[in-house]
């Protein structure tokens, strides 16, 4: 009888351990590029539309980003913002359980830089 109890207790612990190891959230991984170079330090904002939950991160020096512990499903809206790039937005993303790698880099446009010419010609 004692052996049976020990065996049953061990079986319960194994089942509980397997149940707690199941994946119940989602992760998204991607890269941001301006067409020529990766965009470092861009702000990534992911919005879970049904609840307006907001998740934020920044790209690394190679333009990569990752967000973990996300809701499964969607729709999600992703926004990319930065000092040297134009704002980017995309809606309708759906996430599956586990990892979701974006198949292509997010392509953003560089901001147009304008220079102001200052005249140093001061005639009195």
From the structure above, extract its key features:
alpha/beta, 124 residues, 4-stranded mixed beta sheet, 1 helix
Radius of gyration: 24 Å
Portion of residues within helices: 10-25%
Mean pLDDT: 85
The description of the largest β-sheet is: 4 strands, mixed
Secondary-structure-derived class = alpha/beta
Tally the helices: 1
Shape: elongated
Give an overview of the whole structure.
The chain is α/β, with parallel strands linked by helices and 124 residues long. It has one helix and eight strands. It has one helix at residues 2-20; strands at 26-33, 43-48, 53-58, 64-70, 73-81, 88-95, 98-101, 106-107. The strands form two sheets. Strands 1, 4, 7 and 8 form a four-stranded mixed beta sheet that branches. The longest helix is centred in the N-terminal third of the chain and has 19 residues, at 2-20. The chain is elongated and about 110 Å long. The N and C termini lie far apart (110 Å).
Summarize this structure briefly.
By secondary structure, this protein is of the alpha/beta class. The protein contains one helix and eight strands; from the N terminus they run αββββββββ.
